[in-house]
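Researcher: Next entry: Sialate O-acetylesterase-like (Saccoglossus kowalevskii).
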Amino acid sequence: MPNVFMAVAMDLPDPTSPYGSIHPRYKQDVGYRLALAGRAIAYNEKYVNYAGPFPSNITVQSSNDLVSVIYDMKHIQVNQDSGFEVCCSSTKNCTYLSTDWLAAPITSIIGTNGVQISTKHCSGAKLQAIRYAWRDCPCVYKQCTIYDKDSNLPAPLFVFSLKEKIVKWIN
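Model: Predicted structure:
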């Protein structure tokens, strides 16, 4: 749909909000992110960065149990080594609710816009999918794993299915 946009707010939790944890009291950050998106999409301001980094290339290196995730931004900021998970199964397809998801820590940073994650926990099972920040509350206030270094906007959560070979942005 033309001129429709969203803002990622998963890094703005407010677990003690009287309105429930999904409704933070402090709306300034959400409003700012939506305003950026409005300027870029509805008003066609070409140089307004309104979204955090999104994977542009995911490469599985099964020989050394690594997955490379390259983002579309020039410079990402990595705050910690957690946040990614892999689904490994020899017998069934992984679903969002599957219990086969295992932590996949970041092992290294690739250049200025990528990370390598470890899949060694698959131990013989077939790697089927990768996901990022798939939790009700994936991080504390403004401390998710990956942000765009220039705009300080968070990377959205995603699921990458090796079977389908597509990244799905879930928001």
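Model: Note for the record: The helical segments are 28-42.
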